[in-house]
Amino acid sequence: MDTSLLPGALAGLRVLDLSRVLAGPWSGQLLADLGADVVKVERPGAGDDTRAWGPPWLESPDTERKGESAYFLCANRNKRSVTLDLGSPEGRALVRRLACEADVLLENFKVGGLKQYGLDYASLRELNPRLIYCSITGFGQTGPYANRAGYDFLIQGMGGLMSLTGRADSEAGGGPLKVGVALTDILTGLYASVAVLAALKRRDVSGEGQHIDLALLDVQIACLANQASNYLVGGVAPHRMGNAHPNIVPYQDFPTADGYMIIAVGNDGQFANLCKTLGCPQWATDARFATNSQRVRHRSDLVALIRDVTMGQTTDFWVQAMEAVGVPCGPINSLDRVFADPQVQSRNMRIEMEHPHSDQLPLVGNPIRMSESPVQYRHAPPTLGQHTRQVLTDWLKMTDAELDEIGAGNTK
Fold first, then answer.
1. DSSP letter at 7?
2. Annotated catalytic, 185?
């Protein structure tokens, strides 16, 4: 059976995406990948802020414009773009009409920012009681910081992640660091998608929609996972440890003859195999290292011993030797090596789509693998306003005459 011809898991679901930048668009892209019809509403002439966040650009054949930024392309696949001016009565009226036809609305305006347009949850609920309305902000709809703007970098600092990321203050190059991608935005987008699906399931029973209030700060704290639990249970605030793990040893990077590798030992059996591979089986029975709790206690002694040995061979040598005996390990790849990796290639994590500016637009694939309703790549990230007439016809049944009267774009 050709599963590529099957409808997506969320086929028939309509999502109105009023969000921009990353957290909201990431959620919208995930829902779209799973089959939902996601309509992205953008400002005429400008669009999503990230359309201007380049270089690099996917070059446009029109030499008078820059083309699409790589940043925008990463989070807007499978969507249709509509340009509407929320500052005009006509634009607001069309958004309200679209909301009446939607199952889900995503937005990341400042708290109360859409109320002035009559597009807040309370107003739209009167028009569409079944609407799932998901608001994403930096600090949530309530609390003393509710009216503050929130950005990923800021939240990584305020939410504790940067207190855990980077080398220890006592080491060269020590100090707080942000994660190399806007991870809080990404995680918030994932939480938003989960919340939307849960709200839809409840709507199947109750017949009513609801408001979802998601805050980047809340998500960041929730995702501190074991580090937050370590503090709450142990009463001691964790500190930066570079690439080391607070609860497991050895679980970090180690130098080799030609670079670095990661060793991630998760149990005592793996540690014994590591010791044999390194030519030092006696470490596995040494009272200082025999159990993980003892290895954590004597971390500095053990790490120094392992480093002295690993520097004697190349990364590839050690990875091959350790994989043969079941010791989790691997190289630290740059992105060119990531996308050249045979495992990554076999999983189709690099895809190509046709785009108005390129016959072969490279994108990162969706990691979800579903046997009966697989992810489908239907639309490349849209150009600004590319689908305005198409969507207004599909969702609102507007005629060509009506579209011409309001000056809707001619792209079909």
1. P
2. yes
Q: How far apart are CA 199 and CA 134, in angstroms?
A: 10
DSSP letter at 109? P
Closest to 252 in 3D by CA, of 330, 325, 312:
330
**Could you tell me the CA-to-CA distances from 52 to 49, 107, 359, 380 in Å, in that order?**
6, 20, 22, 18
What CATH fold (topology level) applies to the domain 3-222+347-406? Rossmann fold (3.40.50)
Report CA dihedral (23, 28, 32, 35) to the nearest 10 degrees: 110
Distance separating alpha carbons of residues 95 and 117, to the nearest angstrom: 10
pLDDT of residue 141: 97
Give the chain's mean pLDDT: 94
Write b or e for each residue in 53-70: b if 16 or more Cβ atoms lie within 10 A of its Cβ, otherwise e. ebeebbeeeeeeeebbbb
DSSP letter for each residue of 326-385: T--EEE---HHHHHH-HHHHHTT-EEEEEETTEEEEEEEPP----SSS------PSPPTT
CB-based contact 254:306 (threshold 8 Å): yes
In whole angstroms, give the CA distance from residue 12 to residue 290: 57
The residue from 185, 253, 258, 359 that is catalytic is 185
> What is the Cα–Cα distance from 329 to 319, expressed in whole angstroms?
6
Look at the alpha carbons of 222, 223, 229, 232 in this order and tell me if their dihedral is positive or negative: negative
Q: Which CATH architecture has domain 251-335?
A: 2-Layer Sandwich (3.30)
Q: What are phi and psi of 63, to 5 degrees?
A: -65, -10
Q: Count CA atoms closer than 13 A to 99's CA, side-chain side.
A: 27
The residues spanned by each domain of the chain are 3-222+347-406, 251-335
Residue type, 284: A
Q: What does the block give as tokens for 309?
A: 């040995």
Is residue 210 within 8 A of residue 132, CB to CB? The reply is: yes
Name residue 179's amino acid. Answer: V
Half-sphere exposure of 311 (CA within 13 A, CB side): 7
- Could you give the CA distance from residue 228 to residue 163 in angstroms, rounded to a whole number? 12
What predicted TM-score, i.e. pTM, was given to this entire model? 0.92
Please write the tens of the pLDDT for every residue from 135-148.
999 999 999 999 99
